[in-house]
TrEMBL record:
Enzyme class, spelled out: lyase
Catalyzed chemical reaction(s): dTDP-alpha-D-glucose = dTDP-4-dehydro-6-deoxy-alpha-D-glucose + H2O
A GO BP annotation: nucleotide-sugar metabolic process
Protein name: dTDP-glucose 4,6-dehydratase
Cofactor: NAD(+)
InterPro entries, sorted: dTDP_Gluc_deHydtase, NAD(P)-bd_dom, NAD(P)-bd_dom_sf
Encoding gene per record: rfbB
PANTHER family, A to Z: DTDP-D-GLUCOSE 4,6-DEHYDRATASE-RELATED (PTHR43000)
Entry's family note: Belongs to the NAD(P)-dependent epimerase/dehydratase family. dTDP-glucose dehydratase subfamily.
Molecular functions per Gene Ontology: dTDP-glucose 4,6-dehydratase activity
Record key words, sorted: Lyase, NAD
Gene3D superfamilies with a match to the protein in the record: NAD(P)-binding Rossmann-like Domain (3.40.50.720), UDP-galactose 4-epimerase, domain 1 (3.90.25.10)
Superkingdom of origin organism: Bacteria
Pfam families the record matches: GDP_Man_Dehyd (PF16363)
Length: 351
């Protein structure tokens, strides 16, 4: 069995679903079920005895100890995190609690469990920490892409707390010998993403006839990674990654935000045309986000060189799959657009 934290969130749930398509090994899915955790995403696993769900906060040490003792996982995959930059600007305390205190608590519970394992099981155990490229800060248009040795320079409470969690994971390897793996990924997109993020927000607003809010001049650049590719990379790192190493996971798809929105509008014009005009007509520029990093870009050559992984999707193929999924899954989208989500949109895009 493997233990997955945050397995009802966007990337974690995609990983769990993908895991069962590739493997018959059981999953202990640990999630607090905050606003972004959605058991509806995992509906297809209902009744599957190999999917064990536990509603547990990773800050709850006693609950974690009990889960380790009962289920005896061979690996921990740590997805659980507060992950949205805008939310971290308005409420950083939750990010410190989950990303720093939660990771520390999980590491301590894991270390105690790992130390008690017999020799072969102890040697085979892995703790895989899923992180972000945002810990590296912002690039200019001419800077080289982030590599695994790029110095950390986080610029938001979110990225600072993720950087703190990365440092804790590294320290537990070098101080205690805990066999850890860390992945730093670029912007993910795909099915089941909570509609506060750029791509699902634009799709939902476009179909609802609402403005498509673009921060600043829309020229901020991100490297886009299809979530299915991210899941395959994590499986490779878990299976064959070297203990103590960090691996960057990127899609080789640097795109300006405005370019992403234009492409989405064009796909929707093709797949779900309006009675008149284009979805591009709904684009609205809003005040830029505080501390908005200009460019992120991942150099994923180490992962390809050492483990043979590279993304299967281009941005064009991945985005088309994503739009089709949202068009075909109205019920899921409606289910996550709760009152809290509506309040969040009003708060961040009112201007």
């Amino acid at each position: 069995m493997i233990l997955v934290t945050g397995g009802a969130g966007f990337i974690g749930a995609n990983f769990v679903l993908d895991w069962f398509r590739q493997s018959d090994e059981a999953v202990l899915n640990v999630d607090k079920l905050t606003y972004a955790g959605n058991l509806g995403t995992l509906q297809s696993l209902q009744g599957n005895p190999k999917h064990v769900f536990a509603r547990v906060d990773i800050c709850d040490r006693a609950a974690l100890d009990a889960l380790f003792a009962e289920h005896k996982p061979r690996a921990v995959l740590h997805f659980a995190a507060e992950s949205h930059v805008d939310r971290s600007i308005h409420g950083p305390a939750d990010f410190v609690q989950t990303n720093v205190v939660g990771t520390f608590t999980l590491l301590e519970a894991t270390r105690q469990y790992w130390n008690a394992l017999p020799g072969a099981e102890k040697a085979a155990f892995r703790f895989l920490h899923v992180s972000t490229d945002e810990v590296f800060g912002s690039l200019s248009t001419t800077d080289p892409q982030f590599s695994e040795t790029t110095p950390y320079a986080p610029n938001s409470p979110y990225s600072a707390t993720k950087a703190g969690s990365d440092h804790l994971v590294r320290a537990y390897h070098h101080t205690y010998g805990l066999p850890v793996l860390t992945t730093n990924c670029s912007n993910n997109y795909g099915p089941y993403q909570f509609p506060e993020k750029l791509i699902p927000l634009m799709i939902a607003n476009a179909l609802a006839g609402k403005p498509l809010p673009v921060y600043g001049d829309g020229q901020n650049v991100r490297d886009w990674l299809y979530v299915g590719d991210h899941c395959s990379a994590i499986r490779e790192v878990l299976a064959r990654g070297q203990s103590g190493e960090t691996y960057n996971v990127g899609g080789w798809n640097e795109k300006k935000n405005l370019e992403v929105v234009h492409t989405l509008c064009d796909l929707l014009d093709e797949m779900r045309p309006k009675a008149a005009g284009s979805y591009r007509d709904q684009i609205t520029y809003v005040a830029d986000r505080a501390g908005h990093d200009r460019r992120y870009a991942i150099d994923a050559r180490k992962l390809e060189r050492e483990l043979g992984w590279k993304p299967a999707e281009t941005f064009e193929t991945g985005l088309r799959k994503t739009v089709l999924w949202y068009l075909d899954n109205h019920a899921w989208v409606a289910g996550v657009q709760s009152g809290e989500y509506q309040n969040w949109v009003a708060k961040h895009y009112a201007a």
